[in-house]
Amino acid sequence: MSLWSTYRSLTPKTRALFGVGVMAWATIGLWTTPQVENALGMQASPSEKEELDRQLAVRISRVGGDGKSDERAH
């Protein structure tokens, strides 16, 4: 029996409780992550955060065209 069919065979109340439990577990994990990182010494330094922000920055560049504004758009 597959995982999906096993899940579907549960009663609706049990599936709802399972979903609420998964959401609660995720919320607790997101809420406690900073404290766990600090306790394990895994907190990023400000320079590491800046480097990550720089690497994840979205760069937009125009492709094609002759560099003039498109007068048909006005």
Write a structural description.
The model has no long low-confidence stretch (mean pLDDT 88). It is flat and about 65 Å long. The protein has 74 residues and is mostly helical. It has one domain. The chain is built from three helices and no strands.
CA distance, first residue to last residue: 61 Å
Please give the count of helices. 3
Structural class: mainly alpha
Shape: flat
pLDDT average, as an integer?
88
- Beta-strand portion reads under 5%
Q: How are helices and strands ordered from N to C? A: HHH
- What can be said about the biggest beta sheet? none
Number of domains: 1
Low-confidence stretches: none
Provide the fold topology.
Elements: H1 3-8, H2 12-40, H3 46-56
Brief description of this entry?
The chain is mainly alpha-helical. The protein has helices at 3-8, 12-40, 46-56. Helices cover 62% and strands 0% of the residues.
Keywords:
74 residues; mainly alpha; 3 helices
